[in-house]
Design goal:
The structure holds two protein chains of two kinds. By secondary structure, chain A is mostly beta strands. Chain A is built from no helices and eleven strands. The chains are: A mainly beta, B mainly beta.
Chain lengths: ~110, ~120
């Protein structure tokens, strides 16, 4: 089955700097790659996603890139702010009927002001 | 537009008791997924249901765990004879079940934190 690895496990950046989180997946049939942000005591919140027919997607300060050949995808956050501090999870799935996501282990992002 | 509602937020049980976790999907959503999160770990898939049907239960432990999503009412995750290892956060997510690319997004609830004493 699918296996998703995520790096780094923790990331500290200065406010205003960029943050990059990387994930690799094992199943070449996976075609859907969302990113979730989880704040303390809350459920995961979808922040951006990408399908396998697209190489890059951007939404304001957040962007995701996908390299299907290498089977890896990355989350880029520019101009980081203290409120970006949270745990970020990548996930992958084969979106056919249903959408069973396989998650990475998470990255704790700390933005220092 | 209410999101995915889970209750209770916190549930304390003694070993051997039963735990019932409830999930009401977002309005218009007919598919429900249950995930478990252990401390400092990612979310692990447990079960995928639609109304009155279990689609995929490959992540469910073989014993003591069951799930349902009746025609009326919330989805229920039931854990019988709980043990300390069942202590975790349990999250529910819902989707419309449509094959449309935009409609298969999963939206999560705030979770139920189960503590077994």
């Amino acid at each position: 089955g699918e296996n998703v690895e995520q790096h780094p496990s923790t990331l500290s950046v200065q406010e205003g700097d960029s943050a990059v989180i990387k994930c690799t997946y094992s199943d070449s049939a996976s075609n859907y790659f969302p990113w979730y942000k989880q704040e303390l005591g809350k459920g995961p919140q979808l922040i951006i996603d990408i399908r396998s027919n697209v190489g890059e997607k951007k939404d304001q300060r957040i962007a995701v890139t996908l390299n299907k050949t290498a089977k890896h995808f990355s989350l880029h956050i520019t101009e980081t702010q203290p409120e970006d501090s949270a745990v970020y999870f990548c996930a992958a799935s084969i979106m056919e009927y249903g959408n069973k996501l396989v998650f990475g282990a998470g990255t704790i992002l700390r933005v220092k002001s | 537009n209410a999101g995915v509602m889970q209750n209770p937020r916190h549930l304390v049980r003694r070993r051997g008791q039963e735990a019932r976790l409830r999930c009401s999907p977002m309005k218009g959503h007919s598919h429900v997924y249950w995930y478990r999160q252990l401390p400092e770990e990612g979310l692990k898939f447990m079960v995928y249901l639609q109304k009155e049907n279990i689609i995929d239960e490959s992540g469910m432990p073989k014993e003591r765990f069951s799930a349902e999503f009746p025609k009326e009412g919330p989805s229920i995750l039931r854990i019988q004879q709980v043990v300390r290892g069942d202590s975790a956060a349990y999250f529910c997510a819902s989707s419309t079940g449509s094959r449309s690319a935009t409609n298969e997004k999963l939206f999560f609830g705030s979770g139920t934190q189960l503590s077994v004493l």
